[in-house]
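Researcher:
Attend to C-alpha cell order:
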Amino acid sequence: MKDITVYSTSWCGFCHQLKAWLTEKGLEFDEINIEDDEQAAKDVVEATKQMGVPVTKIKDTYIVGFDRPKLEQLLRQNHLI
C-alpha cells in the first residue's frame, strides 16, 4: 500500500482534478472508488465525520476536499515532496 490514498467517485470533478494534480507532481497513490467499495465509504466517513469527496489519506491523516495548501503542507511534512 502506498503512502497516499485517494477516496473518490467517478462523477466528482474535484476528484479528477486531485488525481491529475498528484500525477503531475509525480506522486503515486492508491485510488479507492467509494461507489464500488461500500466498506471503504463507511470507513472514510467514520474517520472524517464527513461525507464529501475527494478524501486524501496521507499516511494516517485525512484531508477532505481538494485543499492544495493543506495537501502540500502534509506532503512536505511526510517528506513526499
Summary: The beta strands are 4-8, 30-33, 55-58, 61-64. The longest strand covers residues 4-8.
